[in-house]
Specification:
The chain is an alpha/beta fold. Helices cover 30% and strands 27% of the residues.
Length: 425
């Protein structure tokens, strides 16, 4: 499907979709708990659907009604076939660790884009905890030969490639025979995501001890308790709606936790720094457009904000510099390349230099955008299209279902002039 975006104003109120990151983590903790857990307000998307499907193949009982999921965990079974993780990196990495608790061999496969994203550092950490595992030169597929438990001990891995490697090990460490000591050989990037993992574990009765700089973690043997877990609104997805308000009218998003651990709640400070009018009342966030100015910002801890902040910078007065972009080539696409290429197609001067991107704000022109099958790239260019001269056509626009299946409906509700164009084939 293609989507055509016309220059248009926005106005209205929409609810934030549930958090993808918290839904994944609640699923894993529920699967490791003995008994039935309830997940309220879960997100069903391509990625969380992949986690549900794979957990089902591992013997976890799941009932997935739209607003309430029931998960019966605690008894993992050897899968009868390969575990297909689709294009969900979170699924691949978290489940690889979970499979260490399975008595038998599990083989995790994935789609073509995810096959180019690393899993080696995670498996290296698991091997240090005496788990027999291997990969294809550090990339999927991954094979885990579990013995029904993890022996535990000490492990050291890098913290600057993906925080998911750290989260994956922390999620299974409480069930190891011996206490687990995890040390990071480099500073941890995307720290808030590990904080979210520890927060979810805490709500299931598990405590992880972390040093102040989050370079060292200690996990004693514990059990996960079944619980009722309410998923908060997703700041990552809401950021695109709020950005639309910052550029083209006024948007209110409901259901956003004000002091969330989610890294992408930083969009509020970014919008304020750029000059947008931001109003917070309880769990409602309103953003009203005004003349935006460029900024300098480091996205190391919130890399998923890079596309939407780039969209804002494309229109803001002056020159913006976004740093901390090195790991963005490991996402669904090379997000830096995808944004620079798309912005140039729309007449925006964007230049990549080392670990930064420089964007000179202007009035964009409509263009043809290939989002590289990346949900966040597609959503970012829909925001740019609101203020572009002429129509903006986004190819493969249904890729947003990876994280926010209702995105185009929400944009339409806000008054965005858009037209869905079905595939001609």
């Amino acid at each position: 499907m293609k989507v055509e975006i016309r220059r248009s104003g926005v106005k209205g109120t929409v609810a934030a979709p549930p958090s993808k990151s918290y839904t994944h983590r609640a699923l894993i903790c529920s699967a490791l708990a003995q008994g039935k857990s309830r997940i309220l307000n879960p997100l069903y998307s391509d990625d969380t659907g992949a986690t549900c499907s794979v957990l089902g193949e591992l013997g976890v009982g799941l009932s997935t009604d739209p607003e309430l999921w029931e998960v019966v965990g605690g008894e993992l079974e050897k899968p009868d076939s390969d575990l297909f993780c689709r294009e969900s990196a979170t699924t691949l990495r978290f489940i690889a660790a979970v499979c260490a608790l399975v008595d038998g061999t599990s083989r995790l496969t994935c789609g073509p884009a995810l096959s180019r994203r690393p899993v080696g550092p995670l498996l290296d950490g698991l091997r240090q905890l005496e788990v027999d595992c291997r990969s294809n030169g550090g990339f999927p597929p991954a094979v885990i030969k579990g013995i029904g438990r993890i022996r535990g001990g000490s492990a050291a891995i890098r913290g600057d490639i993906s925080s998911q490697f750290v989260s994956a090990i922390l999620l299974v460490s409480p069930l190891a025979d011996r206490p687990v000591s995890l040390k990071l050989t480099t500073p941890l990037e995307s720290r808030p995501y590990v904080s979210m993992t520890m927060d979810t574990q805490r709500r299931f009765g598990v405590e992880v001890q972390a040093s102040g700089n989050m370079r060292e973690f200690q996990v004693q043997r514990q059990i996960y308790n079944p619980t009722e877990f309410a998923v908060e609104g997703d700041w990552s997805s809401a950021a695109y709606l709020l950005a639309a308000g910052g550029l083209a009218g006024k948007v209110t998003v409901l259901g956003l936790k004000p002091k969330s651990l989610q890294a992408d709640s930083a969009i509020i400070d970014i919008l304020k720094k750029m000059g947008a009018q931001v109003d917070l009342k309880g769990t409602a966030v309103s953003v009203k457009s005004s003349s935006l100015k460029g900024l300098e910002f480091d996205v190391s801890d919130c890399p998923d904000l890079f596309p939407v902040v780039s969209a804002l910078c494309a229109v803001a007065d002056g020159t913006s510099v976004l740093r901390g972009i090195r790991r963005l080539r490991y996402k669904e696409s090379d997000r830096v390349m995808a944004m620079v290429e798309g912005l140039r197609n729309m007449g925006v001067k964007a230049t990549r230099r080392g670990d930064g991107v420089t964007i000179v704000g202007t009035t964009p022109r409509g263009g043809l955008i290939d989002p590289k099958n990346d949900h966040r790239i597609a959503m970012a260019f829909s925001v740019v299209g609101l203020v572009a001269e002429g129509e903006t056509v986004i190819l493969d626009a249904d890729c947003v279902s990876k994280s926010y299946p209702g995105f185009w409906d929400a944009m339409g509700k806000l008054g965005v002039g858009l037209r869905r164009i079905g595939d001609e084939q």
